[in-house]
Amino acid sequence: MDEIKIKFINGPEYLLPDISYENFVKFFEFEGASDMAYDNYLKSKNMKEISDFDSQSIENDMGLVLTNKNRERVIIFKCLYDSGSEEAFD
Fold first, then answer.
1. What is the Cα–Cα distance from 64 to 20, expressed in whole angstroms?
2. Which tens digit of pLDDT belongs to each residue from 42-73?
3. Cα distances (Å, whole numbers) of residue 73 to 3, 68, 76
4. Average model confidence (pLDDT) for the chain?
């Protein structure tokens, strides 16, 4: 399975949420399936949704890093924040 990270140049990196069935059963059978349990799951695994970021939280270049350890392959995508729906967007 590929590991997908959100990585900022000279900044933090986060994993994209993995809510595969195995992880869902493992974590949520004890915690319950609520918004608070999901938020705790993300925090405990250093995960963030891409939609958690906005123009204020993206100060450096952001990229997605896909790593497949079985194939020894890494693919890096440079992301461009472009949201025409934000009033402060130039």
1. 19
2. 888 899 888 888 777 776 688 889 999 888 99
3. 11, 5, 10
4. 79
CB 32 within 8 A of CB 24: no
Angle between helices 35-44 and 21-31 (to 10 degrees): 120
| Residue recorded with tokens 């130039």 | 90
What element of type H or E holds 78? Answer: strand 73-79
Identify whether the C-beta of residue 10 lies closer than 8 Å to the C-beta of residue 60.
yes
Determine the straight-line distance between the first and last CA of the chain, rounded to whole angstroms: 38
Q: Where residue 86 falls among pLDDT bands split at 50, 70, 90?
A: low
The pLDDT value recorded for residue 74 is 93
Look at residues 81, 61, 46 and name the one whose alpha carbon lies nearest to residue 10: 61
What are the helix (H) ranges across 1-90?
21-31, 35-44
What tokens appear for 15 in the block? 């994993």
pLDDT surpasses 60 at 89:
no
